[in-house]
Design brief:
Blueprint (H helix, E strand, L loop, with lengths): L7 E2 L1 E3 L2 E3 L6 E5 L6 E6 L3 H20 L2 H17 L1 H12 L3 H21 L6 E3 L6 E9 L2 E5 L7 H12 L3 E5 L5 H14 L6 E3 L4 H9 L3 E7 L2 H12 L5 E5 L4 E5 L5 H13 L9 E7 H17 L18 H16 L3 E5 L21 E4 L17 E7 L3 H9 L6 E5 L3 H10 L4 E4 L19 E2 L4 H8 E9 L19
Parallel strand pairs: 1-5, 8-9, 8-11, 9-10, 11-12, 13-14, 13-18, 14-17, 16-17, 18-19
Antiparallel strand pairs: 2-3, 4-5, 6-7, 7-21, 12-20, 15-16
Helix pairs in contact: 1-7, 2-4, 3-4, 4-5, 5-14, 9-10
The structure holds 2-aminohexanedioic acid.
Length: 509
């Protein structure tokens, strides 16, 4: 019996493709069909150790290049991402299940981030600061921190890796990256792109694998900063671990239990449109998706009717079909979690308005029976601070309508009554309500008359409360991957001190 040789995709460590020392492999699964796309080596802590050693060794040479020279490598990536948008968008859709416009937007967001980082190489870094003493020149300067560990999620498998890595590399750090285990194919393509740029060996390293590989990155003291985007549970574990270790930094972006506040002054066309986008785009699997719609009693019935009608009808199907609005969820665990929380909502007293949770077979396209399919699940529930279904993140198309009576303060109290604080939006034509929400809504990303999704890369992307620490994007990520030096140069031959401190040295005689 002949056995067909199966390609197993390797890691990229120290400028080389390597199988590492692991014996286990894993498969990337197309969530729309349940079929395997490709097979990958599962990285071990020893593989991670080698990648960190390579990054550590490469750091000294890399940091000595100019910003402009380092950015040149990122411009290569920028062009590659742009030129291959359609092809890569399709890969994203096939591997993550996101519908094709989202697959492409993921690639576009990636090249936007790379463009920002590479362009920023020619912008001023640091500040010239006045001194009390005219002969002193004071500067705030930035230095790279060293090896940066990047642990990224499956839901933006191209964009988020570049949120983490683009600025980090241009600033002069080296990288050890673990892509999400659900989207290793995207990881492979990105590593191929880095190899093609000819970036010096060890500057960029990729180890495929699971949580044990991620933990090995976090555990290694040579990793000066860990950038993490993913679940609150894992993120807080990283924060706890690194918090007490001198010289080690983190920037963590975790989930949310995001909400839209729809006031009595809302334009209901905008409200319904924003709510559908916020709750069902990416099948509810953005960190910024909204699972709570907090609606004023005066507009509640009309909003409910219109939202429910659309939720009954949004197109669920093949991610590569341009008419699809919602693809499948990522994997079997997500399906299970979604059903568990729908059940919990029922137990907690939900009045279910839309139940497409178990998609009927006729809605599943032919050939896609093995996919991880779910549809919208919408319910109304009376606000009660003890309800878990309106407090815990589901990461799926699970949406609660919560009616409120009173003014904007009441709505914002409910909005803030969760442990998370990532994203949210207010729909209102009253600027006082909008400004109240802007000032008191406890979120890192705040919108008005818009969905809670769709941030641009040049804005900080990070949450408050349980949703985050720091912001692993754009200008703000610089804070986590650089150290500041306050540097003062004396242009005089005399030493003169600030604060009127005497510089005279007096002796006994
Ligand atoms: C995420 O939600 O996991 O703001 C990332 C957005 C996208 C990024 C989302 N730019 O919707």
């Amino acid at each position: 019996m002949s056995q067909e040789a199966k390609t197993v995709y390797p890691h990229f460590i120290a400028g080389e493709w390597t199988d590492g020392d692991g014996t286990e492999t894993f498969e990337s699964i197309n969530p729309a069909t349940g079929e395997a796309i490709a097979t990958f080596q599962r990285g071990t802590p020893t593989d991670v150790e080698r990648a960190i050693a390579a990054a550590d060794e490469a750091f000294d040479t890399w940091r000595r290049l100019s910003y402009i020279d380092r950015a040149e490598y990122m411009w290569e990536i920028f062009h590659e991402l742009r030129d291959r948008e359609d092809e890569l968008g399709e890969i994203v859709s096939k591997e993550s299940g996101k519908e094709i416009s989202e697959g492409k937007a993921d690639v576009v967001e990636a090249w936007h981030m790379v463009e920002w980082a590479a362009g920023n190489a020619r912008h001023p870094h640091g500040d010239v600061v006045p001194s009390e003493i005219p002969e002193k020149d004071a500067y705030m300067r930035l230095k790279p921190r060293g090896v940066v560990g990047c642990i990224t999620p499956w839901n933006f498998p191209v964009a988020i890796p570049f949120w983490h890595m683009a600025v980090t590399l241009v600033e002069g750090n080296t990288v050890v990256w673990k892509p999400a285990e659900q989207t290793p194919w995207c990881g492979q393509v990105i590593a191929e792109m880095f190899e093609k740029t000819g970036i010096p060996d060890g500057v960029f390293n990729m180890v495929q694998g699971f949580g044990d590989a991620g933990a090995a990155i976090v555990d290694d003291e040579r990793v000066s900063t860990v950038l993490f985007t993913g679940s609150a549970e894992v993120g807080h574990g990283i924060g706890d671990k690194l918090g007490g270790q001198p010289g080690r930094e983190t920037s963590l972006e975790m989930g949310g239990k995001n909400a839209l506040v729809i006031t009595s002054n809302a334009d209901l066309d905008i409200a319904v449109h924003s709510a559908i986008m916020s709750s069902f785009k990416t099948t509810g699997q953005r960190c910024v998706s909204s699972e709570r719609l907090i609606v004023h009693t005066d507009v509640y019935d009309e909003f409910k009717e219109r939202f429910v009608e659309l939720a009954e009808n949004v197109a669920v199907g093949d991610p590569l079909d341009p008419n699809t609005f919602m693809g499948p969820v990522a994997d079997a665990q997500q399906v299970e979690k979604f059903h568990k929380y729908n059940e919990l909502a029922r137990t907690e007293g939900a009045n279910v308005l839309v139940d497409r949770a178990e998609l009927p077979p006729e809605e599943i396209p032919d050939g896609f029976e093995g996919g991880f399919w779910v549809g919208p699940f919408v319910y109304e529930i009376e606000y009660d601070p003890d309800l878990r279904c309106i407090k815990e993140e589901v990461f799926g198309p699970h949406v609660a309508l919560i009616e409120y009576i009173g003014d904007i303060e009441q709505a914002v109290d409910i909005h803030n009554d969760v442990q998370y604080g990532l994203a949210g939006s207010i729909i209102s034509d009253d600027y006082r309500e909008i400004n109240y929400y802007r000032d008191y809504g406890e979120v890192g990303l705040s919108y008005a008359n818009l969905p809670s999704i769709g941030a641009e890369v040049q804005l900080p992307f990070g949450g408050v409360k349980k949703s985050g620490k720091g912001s692993p994007t754009a200008r703000e990520v610089i804070e986590s991957v650089t150290e500041r030096t306050a540097f003062t140069l004396n242009n005089s031959r005399d030493i003169e001190m600030a604060q009127g401190l005497s510089a005279d040295i007096t002796t006994e005689d």
